UniProtKB/TrEMBL annotation:
Its main location: cytoplasm. It catalyses: tRNA(Phe) + L-phenylalanine + ATP = L-phenylalanyl-tRNA(Phe) + AMP + diphosphate + H(+). Belongs to the phenylalanyl-tRNA synthetase beta subunit family. Type 1 subfamily. One of its GO terms (molecular function) is ATP binding. Keywords: Aminoacyl-tRNA synthetase, ATP-binding, Cytoplasm, Ligase, Magnesium, Metal-binding, Nucleotide-binding, Protein biosynthesis, RNA-binding, tRNA-binding. This is Phenylalanine--tRNA ligase beta subunit. The keyword Cytoplasm applies. Its cofactor is Mg(2+). Residues 403-479 form the B5 domain. Its EC number is 6.1.1.20. The gene is pheT. Mg(2+) binds at D457, D463, E466, E467. InterPro entries: aa-tRNA-synth_II/BPL/LPL, B3/B4_tRNA-bd, DNA-bd_dom_put_sf, Fdx_antiC-bd, Fdx_antiC-bd_sf, NA-bd_OB-fold, Phe-tRNA-ligase_IIc_bsu, Phe-tRNA-ligase_IIc_bsu_bact. Tetramer of two alpha and two beta subunits.
Length: 803
């Protein structure tokens, strides 16, 4: 929600600049996304002027050359293209140096050979309206040279608020004013609906029927005659523009203004176009169609609700009106509707139709029925003031005013126990009263009556304690460890996951956090076909399924960085992946009969691209990311967890053929390792990318949490180098495993240090290290072990000693 600061100060002056107010609101639970300026800047260059002379431009039929007084004794020549400019007018002037709403800085210019030292302003050129047909003509008693900002709201700070779903009352200027009053203690002016010019009772000639009271708890309507449609005054248009609304005409602007001020959406019907003078709130019929105000034909079904008259549907209830009864320039009678609708039902209709409006966004969060008359009263005041209308006697009010308010006991002892500090009872009462709660003394605390606009949010004693805490100051609460035997220690699994993350950070990786939702299109890009969980209520089509791998979000993060000039990127992510059935096993009979929750598993993934380390004078061309670099990082991670593993050839479709592997832990599949397929990286505009992804449920149970140590020995190592010819389809890992199995207890380490391929065979050279803890070994002692190794390689791998 956009909140113009000058509109807020109509009801409460926060007494602080916008940035400090934003911080204060954020600390009390109202998130401010950003603060920005609406309108123009360099305000010293915007002044009131008076047109002294107006002459036709010598070389342009549509341009005028004006002499404009801009201060005592100062006259500027300005070339103007507006058709309504005339001598004697008081106007707004932008002088050279002015900064316009689009950021353009105004300069001196020549138009068709005539110098122009400024601009005579139209409404849209200072963002207080959308009219560009002519210049603004101001009150004639204004003095030339007066700063224009003293006369018109041409610039204002705007707070972009992120209102949480439980606080629809803050989707209004007065609702936020109430919060500012509570947060700062500054005086709050009476509610704008405090004085009602209307009267109760039926309206002659108007009939309203509500067939579904559960969907429409309250429906109010008033009839206005002798309405004159025209433009709204500048003060109203300026407020709408700053709040992000486009002015249309005075009646439509009144409905938008009242909605933004009170939070209650309204709709204006041209009553002469309401067939039979009767409106009916009912369920739609399957296949029923209507043309909405956005010039789109909507097809409805029986789960939706509409308002109709004698000629059929005229409005989609709570979402958007229809073209057939919209207010037009010829309208003279207006029926103003302010109703309350069931939020969840309306939200489902909005989603089905793909139609979300300012009104539906408020109703779906749960407005109070009482707010209907608040909006109706404000609209009545403005209709009488701005349209010259006559209010017909009576107010239709079906279902009002609303449920009885709830009273909740707030115990002083409970406040102290939950917050960990004592807040004086008088301060608790003052805070709640500023939030418009009713407060009465009770024996052990306060009896608090919840206002209608907080009915759905504050239902328990702890909710009242939260209200007290956030306004008293969450930052002032003491930091304590929870009692009741709770432990603040990490679980063994959390410690292991943190150890793995630390190993990756130590290897130069940065952590990324991606969405758990993804686009169905991502599976095609990654060439995978895993059972994905489809969301019933997705935020958008691009976020409509749950991820089955971290690879997609990691690739998006890598692309985001490389697109911004980061050539060498190392990222890791730890997060959940989801499958629509228990992954890797057949569902049980009970699972097959029901709809089980998704199979959620914690994964750890890492990707690297570019150079492994920065270039230097000693190494101008450092190595780049490849399979072996990724394997080295994997070894660092699993080494930190003390998890033994092996790798075998893999065939994942998203990996490069011949540079793909599966990671085995205790003989079970635990993830993939390798370089990504060029077809996959091309989809993300990336070069060579390598990485791995581990299923932590298959890894962490095998981690050694309590390592065993052995004494250091001073006896030397005996090294033996052996080279074996083995078939080309055998791997180095298989050779190492066979050598370790045959080497006996004295063999401490085996490493491959050379490879050579020739005529369908591969030569692998391995270095064996033998050591005893109690003596120096001799060649005679290790000779039998070496012979066992040679025989084992020959029998198990069909290998032979080279040379």
């Amino acid at each position: 929600m956009r909140l113009p600061l000058f509109w807020l100060t109509d009801y409460v002056d926060p007494g602080m600049e916008a940035s400090k107010l934003a911080s204060r609101l954020a600390m009390t639970g109202t998130e401010v996304d950003r603060v920005h300026t609406h309108g123009v800047s360099a305000l010293e260059n915007f002044v009131v002027g008076r047109v002294l002379e107006r002459e036709q431009h010598p070389d342009a039929d549509r341009l005028s050359v004006c002499q404009v007084a801009i201060g005592e004794g100062d006259v500027a020549t300005i070339v103007c293209g507006a058709p309504n400019v005339a001598a004697g007018q008081t106007v707004g002037v932008a002088l050279p140096g002015s900064v316009m709403p689009d950021g353009t800085k105004l300069k001196k210019a020549k138009l068709r050979g005539v110098p122009s030292n400024g601009m005579i302003l139209a409404e849209d050129e200072v963002s207080i309206g959308s009219d560009h047909a002519g210049i603004m003509v101001l009150d004639e008693d204004l003095v030339p040279g007066t700063p224009l900002a003293d006369v018109l709201p041409i610039a204002t700070d705007v707070l972009e608020l992120e209102i949480t779903p439980n606080r629809p009352d803050c989707l209004s200027v007065y609702g936020v004013a109430r919060e500012v009053h509570a947060a700062t203690g500054q005086p709050l002016k009476p509610a704008p609906w405090a004085e009602d010019p209307g009267t109760p009772g039926p309206i002659e000639g108007v009939t309203i029927e509500v067939q579904d009271p559960e969907f429409c708890p309250r429906f109010t309507a008033r009839l206005f005659e002798d309405v004159k449609i025209g433009p709204s005054p500048r003060w109203l248009k300026a407020r709408l523009m700053a709040a992000g609304q486009r002015p249309i005409n005075n009646v439509v602007d009144i409905t938008n203004y009242a909605m933004l001020l009170t939070g209650q959406p309204l709709h204006a019907f041209d009553f002469d176009l309401v067939a039979g003078g009767k409106l009916v709130v009912r369920r739609a019929k399957d296949g029923e169609k209507m043309l909405t105000l956005d010039d789109a034909e909507r097809t409805l079904d029986s789960s939706m609700h509409l308002i109709d008259d004698g000629d059929g549907p005229t409005s989609i209830a709570g979402i958007m009106g229809g073209q057939r009864s919209e207010v037009q320039p010829t309208t003279t009678r207006v029926l103003m509707e302010a109703a309350n609708w069931n939020g969840p039902t309306l939200q489902r209709t909005s989603q089905k139709l793909g139609l979300r409006t300012e009104a539906s966004g408020r109703f779906e969060k749960g407005l109070a029925p009482e707010q209907a008359m608040e909006g109706q009263i404000v609209a009545t005041q403005l209709m009488l003031e701005l349209t010259g209308a006559r209010l017909v006697e009576g107010t239709i009010d079906i279902g009002g005013p609303g449920p009885e308010p709830q009273t909740i006991r707030l115990r002083d002892e409970k406040v102290t126990r939950l917050l960990g500090t004592e807040i004086p009872l008088g301060e608790q009462a003052e805070i709640l009263e500023r939030l418009d709660f009713g407060v009465h003394d009770a024996g052990d605390g306060l009896d608090v009556t919840v206002p209608a606009f907080r009915r759905n949010d504050v239902t328990r004693e702890v909710d009242l304690i939260e209200e007290v805490a956030r306004l008293w100051g969450l930052e002032k609460l003491p930091a304590t460890i929870p009692g009741h035997g709770m432990s603040a220690r990490l679980t063994p699994e959390q410690r292991l996951r943190r150890r793995a993350a630390d190993a990756l950070v130590g290897a130069g990786f940065s952590e990324a956090i991606g969405w758990s939702f993804q686009s169905p299109e991502l599976a095609r890009k990654l060439r995978i076909d895993l059972p994905a969980v489809k969301l019933r209520n997705p935020l958008s089509e691009d976020l409509s399924v749950m991820r089955t791998t971290l690879l997609g979000s990691l690739l998006n993060s890598v692309r985001h960085n490389t697109a911004r000039g980061a050539e060498d990127v190392k990222l890791f992510e730890e997060g959940s992946v989801y499958f629509d059935r228990p992954h890797g096993r057949t569902p049980t009979a009970a699972e097959a009969r029901s709809t089980p929750l998704p199979d959620e598993r914690m994964h750890l993934g890492a990707l690297l691209t570019g150079k492994l380390r920065p270039a230097s004078w000693g190494e101008p061309n450092p190595p780049t990311a490849d399979f072996f670099a990724a394997k080295g990082v994997l070894e660092a991670v699993l080494g930190a967890l003390r998890v033994p593993f092996t790798v075998v050839r893999g065939s994942d479709p998203f990996l490069h053929p011949g540079r793909a592997a599966r990671v085995l832990v205790n003989g079970e599949d635990a993830g993939w390792l390798g370089e990504l397929h060029p077809g996959v990286t091309e989809e993300f505009d990336l070069g060579r990318v390598a990485g791995f992804e581990l299923d932590l449920a298959a890894v962490l149970p095998h981690a050694v949490t309590t390592p065993l140590y052995e004494d250091m020995t001073s006896f030397p190592v005996i090294r033996q180098d052996l080279a074996f010819w083995i078939p080309a389809d055998r791997t180095a890992a298989e050779l190492v495993e066979v050598v370790k199995g045959a080497g006996g207890k004295l063999l401490r380490d085996v490493r491959v240090f050379d490879v050579y391929a020739h005529e369908g065979r591969t030569s692998l050279a391995v270095r064996l290290e033998f050591r005893a803890t109690d003596r120096t070994l001799t060649d005679e002692e290790i000779a039998p072990q070496r012979e066992k190794v040679v025989k084992a390689v020959a029998s198990k791998l069909e290998g032979e000693l080279r040379g």
